[in-house]
Amino acid sequence: QVQLVESGGGLVQPGGSLRLSCAASGLTFGRYAMSWYRQAPGKEREFVAEINFAGTTTSYADSVKGRFTISRDNAEKTVYLQMLSLKPEDTAVYYCSAVGVYWGQGTQVTVSP
User: Fold this and answer.
1) Which long-range contacts (CB under 8 A, 24 or more apart) does 61-67 make?
2) In the prediction, which pLDDT does 6 show?
3) pLDDT in the model for residue 99
4) DSSP characters for 36-96?
5) 3-state secondary structure of 31
6) Which of 85, 71, 78 is nearest to 13 (CA)?
7) Are 37 and 20 a contacting pair, CB within 8 Å?
8) pLDDT at residue 100, rounded to an integer
């Protein structure tokens, strides 16, 4: 059974930082591209970042480029999202996904004074 478990969300002030983690089990982690998505209240889920199976290629939504960094540790079966210079518009539930097939339960990120 595939499980993706996100953690690291919370409440942070504008300009602050958070590091999200997504721990995977039940799949051959090193064979899967991993992604982060987010969904704000009343909005559709949107792509945030992706990393290939080897961790050598990444891509980002324009809205987070230069502020967020996706990385992975295949030995630990974990993917990370380092978020810097957070803005109120980054407030959302953040989900990790394995190739858009498997999804975690999400972790809430709230950016507010």
Assistant:
1) 63/89, 64/90
2) 98
3) 87
4) EEEE-TTS--EEEEEE-TTS--EEE-TTTTTTEEEEEETTTTEEEEEE-S--GGG-EEEEE
5) helix
6) 85
7) no
8) 85
The pLDDT of residue 67 is 98
Q: Which residues contact 37 (CB under 8 A, 6 or more apart)?
A: 45, 46, 47, 48, 94, 95, 96, 97
DSSP-derived pairing of the beta strands 68-73 and 34-39: unpaired
DSSP 3-state assignment of 21?
A: strand
At 34, list the tokens: 């991993």
- Tokens, residue 62: 């324009």
Which segments of the chain have a pLDDT < 50? none
Q: Which of the 8 DSSP states describes residue 17?
A: -
Distance of alpha carbon 14 from alpha carbon 16, whole angstroms = 5
